[in-house]
């Protein structure tokens, strides 16, 4: 799947979501549900765009760092802090999948970083996007996230910022 989809943390599994999985915090307590929708219209008011390649209904359980901007806060996608976080993600050991989250063509409003394995939570504790806005490190159930290879590198100039990063190729013309 290419393009983008919608991601939101909700209280219950939504009936029209393409996929959803339960969330647990570090203590094992229920932390809601993470849901993804593939339709064009925003499914819930607080949903944000995510790179659709992360969606994998057959994906294994994972640990995620979910970074969300505080209500009413928007940061230009070209802000040096966002650009540096993108560079730092690419400069370290690769994660299973990474996407910025956004609601329009030019504002960074969060990120989701997916990791698996014994050191997943420890690696996510150093999520570079968490330097921009607070992060929640959560266990997410199976059936939501796959693995996406990292792009060759970030581009600083935009080529269509309506697409969540990373998008490692231009759309076919």
How would you describe what is shown here?
It is a single chain. The two termini are 17 Å apart. The protein is globular. Strand 2 (19-24) and strand 3 (30-37) form a beta hairpin. The protein has helices spanning 80-91, 120-124; strands at residues 4-10, 19-24, 30-37, 48-51, 62-68, 75-76, 97-101, 107-108, 110-115, 135-140. The chain is mainly beta and 173 residues long.
Considering the chains and any ligands shown, give keywords for the structure.
173 residues; mainly beta; eight-stranded antiparallel beta sheet; two-stranded antiparallel sheet
SS content category: mainly beta
Strand content: 25-35%
Based on Cα principal axes, name the global outline.
globular
User: Which stretches of 5+ consecutive residues score pLDDT under 50?
Assistant: none
Count of all domains: 1
How are strands sequenced across the largest beta sheet?
4-1-3-2-10-5-9-7
Helix content: under 10%
Mean pLDDT: 89
| Structure summary, number of beta strands | 10
At a glance:
This protein has about 170 residues and is mainly beta. It has helices spanning about 80-90, 120-125, and strands spanning about 5-10, 20-25, 30-35, 50, 60-70, 75, 95-100, 105-110, 110-115, 135-140.
Please outline the helices and strands.
Elements: E1 4-10, E2 19-24, E3 30-37, E4 48-51, E5 62-68, E6 75-76, H1 80-91, E7 97-101, E8 107-108, E9 110-115, H2 120-124, E10 135-140
Antiparallel strand pairs: 1-3, 1-4, 2-3, 2-10, 5-9, 5-10, 6-8, 7-9
């Amino acid at each position: 799947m290419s393009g983008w989809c919608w991601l939101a943390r909700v209280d219950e599994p939504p009936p029209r979501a393409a996929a959803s999985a339960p969330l647990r915090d570090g203590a094992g307590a229920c932390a809601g549900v993470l849901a993804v929708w593939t339709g064009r219209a925003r499914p819930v008011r607080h949903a944000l765009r995510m790179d659709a390649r992360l969606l994998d209904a057959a994906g294994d359980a994972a640990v995620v760092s979910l970074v969300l901007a505080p209500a009413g806060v928007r940061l230009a996608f070209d802000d040096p802090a966002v650009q540096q976080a993108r560079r730092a993600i690419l400069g370290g050991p690769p994660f299973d999948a990474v996407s910025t989250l956004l609601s329009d063509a030019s504002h960074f409003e969060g990120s989701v970083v997916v990791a698996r394995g014994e050191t997943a939570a420890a690696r996510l504790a150093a999520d570079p996007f968490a330097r921009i806005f607070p992060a929640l490190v959560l266990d997410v159930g199976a059936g939501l996230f796959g693995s996406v290879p990292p792009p060759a590198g970030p581009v600083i100039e935009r080529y269509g910022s309506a697409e969540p990063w990373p998008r490692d190729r231009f759309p076919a013309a």
